[in-house]
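Table S2 (text version). Query chain:
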Amino acid sequence: MRALEKDRARRFASATEFRQALEQVKTDTVRVLVSQVPALWSRGVALARREFARLPWKVRRWVPAGLLAAAVVLLAALPFVCSRPPPTAPAAAVPRPKPVEPALQAPIKRIEEAMAKGQLSEARLLLMQQISRNPGNGRMRYLLGNLDFAEKNPAAGLEAYEEALKLDAGLRADAAMLLNVRNLLNDRKLARQALALMTDRIGRPAGATLAEIASDDRRADFRQAARDACRQVGCADAVDLVKSYTLDLQQARTCEAKRAAVQGLGATKDPRATETLKKARRSGGGLLGDIFGGGNRCVRKDIDAILQDLGVDPSER
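Corresponding structure-token output:
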């Protein structure tokens, strides 16, 4: 009702304030439920004691041991139940988007028309009404993301897109969403969140962008995350691994990281990798170079072994 106030001063000042108010409603609801737990627990214990007293003595004698055994099994299984593997890029082919329900076709058309005319406040009002009525509709969350980007609030837009993709994986290939997310990859605050959405939720439709990042992005963590994602979604063949691992080697500051880059270069079997490895072998750097991460002396044996495996004499210049 506050969002629908005619007086502008009485409405929410921003979408962020509106979101915080909605989240507070959820928090208060949870707090009320939690406050009722002790009473519910006491009531449950009393009922359990009453039923336990009715059991025959032979049965009651074995109940504590049975409960103890069940607790041991539960504790042993807990790590497997609670632990989840990290999210991986969706590799499956993109399904068709869920069909728009007939009852939602007219509201969606009105929302899109309002956005096209630049009537963003009206579009948001219509959207929030529909989202409250259809909280599980991915299309509405997707439109909310588009609206957030139109209102220059990309952080909220990314959250809305993520919710949309959870509800409807068929939206992964949407061109407008891909463009909006891609445009954030150089944003100082949101680049990592945008990349995570690409690798964890969008996957295959973002293959060309992921391959580009994996090949020559100057940010090592971005490059490596995109490289891993491409192995899963089918864009690995588009990655220039020689460029990628060469950058890894140049930016590595530990022997372990340099060794991983050298091994990656050797695995490509690319003639360009041979030249890179020979150059890296000559960059010993001396003692100070090893201390400050500028030399490759600690991986020279690894380089020699790989060059020999490639049929190249390590001593050649």
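Notes on Table S2: Residues 77-88, 285-293 have pLDDT under 50 and may be disordered. Residues 241-317 form one domain.
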